[in-house]
Amino acid sequence: MSCFMKRLAVLIDGVARRIVTGAMLFIPLIATQHVFAAQIVRVAAVHFPPYMVRPEKGEDAGLLPRLIDALNGEQDEYEFVMIPTSVPRRFRDFTEGRFDLAVFENPNWGWKDIPHEQIDMGLEDAEVYVARRVEGRGQDYFDTLAGKRLALFSGYHYGFANFNTDQKYLSEHFTITSTYSHDSNLLMVVRGRADIAPVTRSYLIDFMARNKDEAAQLMVSDRIDQIYRQYALLRPNGNIDAPHFRQLLEGLREDGQMAKIFEPLHIKVLKVDTEMPGK
Fold it and tell me: Nearest-CA neighbor of 221 among 159, 130, 148, 150?
């Protein structure tokens, strides 16, 4: 009987050891699964320099990739990924659920009839006018656009045109050339092929820093075409809701990362009311 009890004790001890070992192996597996359970949040990547540059080419150039890296580095509940789209196509892609989130947007830019939640990102930029520097030409040159050749970025919503992007409307009311490049528009002005180009202020600062010779030939208006706050627009029932995304942005604002990303291009980082509704 004593021998039997000893063998039984050895057997029980062996089973117990296997159970403990199995549990120890299972715990890391659970932890690993938790790490890889981050919710994927798809963010629209639209060619909108300096915010995003040529996303269709797979280039991580611009401010959006830096914001994405900061958001992913702040937490592990969500994984933000960029989905390339275009200025005109982004509305359809949003309504069809191709992405969950559009950033650096403004509700006035064609979103009025598209269901969404919006969050004030606390970023302020502007559109300014640029002309060729000519002796005797002053700021009064920008008082009127009538009779002047305008170099426009196709699909952009300009204040002087009441945010109407229709090419037929623009051609009927103004003398325009439309391109998909701020650089092209600014060089048209430098070379005398256009009189005025409306340009995003943050991009103009970047362009003038990279192109000293051309910058010396340009005159920038005191007149502002539009000052706009940047908004994040969230798809209803998307993979992240307004309160959670607002909280993430506030975290980046408080630790100085928003200022580090945007202020070098004179994009103002402002305080926002975090209690404001998202619609």
Answer: 130
**Is the Cβ–Cβ distance between 153 and 185 less than 8 Å?**
yes
pTM of the model: 0.79
Task: Say how many Å lie between the first and final Cα of the chain, rounded.
Answer: 78
Q: What are phi and psi of 162, to 5 degrees?
A: 55, 30
Residue at token pair 């994984």: 79
126-145: pLDDT as tens digits: 999 999 999 999 999 999 99
Work out the angle between the directed axes of helices 63-74 and 242-254 (0-180°, nearest 10). Answer: 100
37-87, pLDDT tens digit by residue? 789 999 999 989 999 988 877 667 899 999 999 999 999 999 999 999 998
Q: Are 53 and 64 in contact (CB under 8 A)?
A: no
Name the token pair of 110: 């064609």
The residue whose two tokens read 């010396």 is: 216
- What the block records as the tokens of 271 is 């305080």
